[in-house]
Specification:
The chain is α+β, with helices and mostly antiparallel strands. The protein has a single domain (3-374), classed as Phosphatase 2c, domain 1, CATH 3.60.40. 24% of the residues lie in helices and 22% in strands. It contains seven helices and 15 strands. It has helices spanning 124-140, 149-169, 283-296, 300-312, 331-338, 341-345, 364-374; strands at 37-42, 45-49, 67-72, 85-90, 95-104, 112-114, 121-123, 189-199, 202-210, 214-218, 225-227, 258-259, 262-264, 269-273, 319-324. The strands form three sheets. Strands 1, 2, 4, 5, 8, 9, 12 and 13 form an eight-stranded antiparallel β-sheet that branches.
Length: 376
């Protein structure tokens, strides 16, 4: 794309709550949801859980957080990605947000059990991701404004374990399976969450995760999509072999979230994503989709819609994203920060997706922090 063909910047807009953006003319992807239910309040906090429903409903969010979120389903009504979550409130330092996504492990948790909301049978994995999301929202009500990230992590681990145990211990919740072995788990789900503190020095980010769902950072100052987590597989990559290859996940028996801390620039976008968003295309496609769909959008809702379509169109799995844009900025502010990337990316946007020799990631920051944490 030449400079001349770049779309002109639109008029800046403020973050408006309680409004519905205009729908575009595209046909929605099957099973896409950008709705939110709630809010639940706790010390001026607002919790939003994206749930199944119609597209494009905007609900109040604690200013000035701009939330991008969606869930797509390959088979409508049978998706195993849980609803994305945002919880945001004001602290003495600034604004604190928690984002999270959940992916029920359909291979390990394929055993059929009674649904909690009906008479039908569903896989354990289907219930597990939704129970983990529900546990997060209940855990938020127990948090205090002075809790540290490690304390919040422990609280949420206990909340998820409690919710999953309730599923297991209910009537019919633990059927006898004819299949035995390590590949079969009770109510398994991945978790990828991040505590984000918008403070005067920038964005302090505390990822916490189990499995192969990820936390990413995207900064306008660097042409990089920074992965802040390492997949819990033998190699640290999601391509190791599906659910069977995961060395860690959340189950009723154990919820153990790995965590690490970063200090990043204030303009950094932080988002959580399930493996359907990144495992079916190389990194340059994910990066260019993030930037191109942002450039085409006028609001966070429209961006949610367009990005969901772009990722679902090449994915062989459900997709879920929970993304927090820079604090204090309108959507137009953030979009304009990243708009110059279109010029830089024009040479790689047309590289074949199966090119294994091109990557736009740099894990050096994360690996250095991991080495320091582990003393190696």
């Amino acid at each position: 794309m030449s400079d001349e063909s770049l779309p002109p910047p639109e008029m800046d807009e403020t973050a408006v709550s309680g409004t519905t953006p205009e729908q575009n003319d595209d046909t929605p992807v099957t099973g896409v949801s950008t709705d939110a239910i709630g809010p639940e309040t706790h010390e001026a906090a607002v919790t939003h859980v994206a749930a199944a429903g119609t597209l494009g409903v905007e609900v109040p969010v604690v200013p000035p957080v701009q939330w991008v979120r969606f869930v797509t389903e390959k088979k409508e009504g049978q998706g195993q990605d849980g609803p994305p979550i945002l919880h945001s409130w004001t602290t003495s330092e600034g604004t604190r947000s928690i984002i999270a996504v959940f992916d029920g492990m359909g291979g390990a948790g394929s055993t059929m059990v009674p649904d909690v909301d009906g008479d039908g049978q569903v896989p354990m994995a289907y219930l597990a991701s939704r129970a983990a999301a529900r546990a997060f929202t209940r855990g938020f009500s127990q948090m205090t404004s002075t809790m540290s990230p490690p304390e919040i992590t422990t609280l949420l681990e206990e909340a998820v374990a409690r919710e999953l145990r309730e599923l297991l211990e209910r009537e019919g919740g633990s059927p006898t399976s004819r299949v035995r072995g390590p590949m079969i788990k009770n109510y398994p789900t991945t978790i990828a969450a991040a505590i984000i503190d918008d403070v005067p020095d920038g964005r302090r980010v505390w990822p916490m995760w189990a499995g192969d769902s990820r936390i990413y950072a995207l900064s306008p100052d660097d042409l990089l999509l920074q992965q802040l987590t390492t997949d819990h597989t033998a190699s640290g990559e999601s391509s190791d072999g599906g659910d069977a290859a995961l060395t860690r996940c959340a189950t009723p028996e154990r919820v153990d979230l790995e965590s690490v801390e970063y200090m990043l620039p204030a303009e950094t976008i932080i988002f959580a994503a399930t493996d359907g968003c990144f495992a079916y295309q190389p990194t340059q496609y994910l990066l260019t989709a993030l930037i191109e769909e942002m450039d085409r959008s006028h609001t966070s809702d429209e961006y949610s819609n367009l990005l969901a379509r772009a990722l679902a169109s090449v994915s062989g799995d459900d997709c879920a994203v929970s993304m927090v844009l820079p604090a204090g900025a309108t959507f137009a502010d953030t979009r304009n920060l990243f708009r110059p990337w279109l010029r830089e990316l024009q040479d790689v946007r047309h590289v074949p997706r199966n090119n294994r020799f091109l990557t736009l990631t740099n894990d050096s920051t994360f690996l250095r922090l991991r080495q320091e944490k582990r003393g190696s």
